[in-house]
Design a protein that fits this description.
By secondary structure, the protein is α+β, with helices and mostly antiparallel strands. 40% of the residues lie in helices and 24% in strands. Strands 1, 2, 4, 5, 6, 7 and 8 form a 7-stranded mixed sheet that branches. Strands 3-11 form a two-stranded antiparallel sheet. A two-stranded antiparallel sheet has the order 9-10. α3 packs antiparallel against α4. The relative contact order is 0.16. The C terminus is likely disordered.
Length: 300
């Protein structure tokens, strides 16, 4: 759940290839609103108060999951993995400044339910939080490199050397997950897998474990993934190149407010950034946003 991302990278090689590197979050942000993508992933801006409480809770969930499934990969017993995860959550909780003791207790409560519900799991964990960098498109003069970090890779006995990617999703209410999701398609392509499993981790107190900890398998049509690789990605990559060359990232106002979602630069927050004059916009960005530190180890 770390928001730190490398900016889009362009390299022009001796052969005059143009290589564009990005991940699913950069792609989705650009498709939704080029200006938001520029603010978040080129200028590395985050609200001055830091990531939201829900984001920080999600970060701790991923830390706990990482420790638990790393233990499973190493062949440890369930109780050992549980203790490893508890220690990791305690260690990392002090770094999540927005979370109060009640929030931490809520995370532990949900984990205890999850572990009890999933204590009889038996499967082969191939990797945990695996970084990848993969050339997905290469037609002169454009090369597209996709990057990312997959939460879990589980051995799939139905395919030779098959691996199914899993993605943990923490949620306070049940969300609908779709095979149209850019992140899921990119993970499927990275693993050469026709499926992806969404591993739900719900905080709801009135929902039964079988629903809030459900595992949902998403199936991808071969032609849909091929279209994504050969047509959709190149189209948006070319649009990114144009935006970067012109140094102009146009706003998409239809993406400012959508149900639960609201862009941090919309008028829902601090009176707004995109709805004020160009003269004042830069000053207001400085007042309400800070540039996050970039760490190469988070290049995913």
């Amino acid at each position: 759940m770390d928001e730190t991302k490398d900016t889009t990278v362009i390299e022009v090689e001796k052969e005059k290839w143009t290589t564009l590197q990005f991940d699913s979050q950069i792609l989705s942000a650009f498709m939704a609103c080029p200006r938001e993508m520029d603010y978040k992933y080129n200028q590395h801006l985050i609200p001055i108060g830091g990531p939201s409480k829900s984001m920080q809770k999600g970060t701790l969930v991923h830390e706990g999951m990482k420790s638990y499934y790393t233990g499973m990969q190493q062949g440890n017993y369930h109780d050992v993995n549980r203790l490893l995860a508890i220690d990791k959550i305690k260690e990392q909780s002090v770094t999540q400044e927005r979370l109060e003791s009640e929030d931490i207790a809520d995370i532990f409560r949900a984990f205890e339910e999850y572990w009890e519900f999933r204590k009889n799991d038996v499967f082969n964990v191939v990797f945990v939080e695996q970084l990848f960098k993969k050339i997905i498109y290469e037609k002169f003069p454009l090369r597209i490199v996709l990057t990312g970090r997959i939460d879990l890779g589980i051995s799939d006995a139905s395919r030779i050397n098959g691996i199914t990617p899993w993605d943990h999703k923490s949620e306070s209410e049940s969300w609908f997950y779709s095979a149209l999701n850019n992140q899921f398609k990119i993970y499927a392509l990275a693993c050469d897998s026709p499926t992806l499993v969404v591993n739900r981790f719900g905080f709801q107190k009135t929902v039964k474990p079988e629903k809030k900890f459900a595992r949902e398998t998403l199936n991808f049509e071969v032609d849909v993934l091929e279209e994504f690789k050969e047509e959709i990605l190149p189209y948006y990559a070319k649009q990114m190149l144009i935006a970067m060359e012109d140094n102009y990232f146009p706003p998409n106002y239809t993406n400012c407010i959508k149900g639960h979602f609201s862009c941090n630069f919309s008028d829902k927050h601090s009176g707004g950034i995109c709805n004020i004059t160009r003269e004042l916009r830069a000053e207001k960005v400085k007042r309400y946003f800070i540039e996050r530190e970039w760490d190469p180890k988070n290049d995913a």
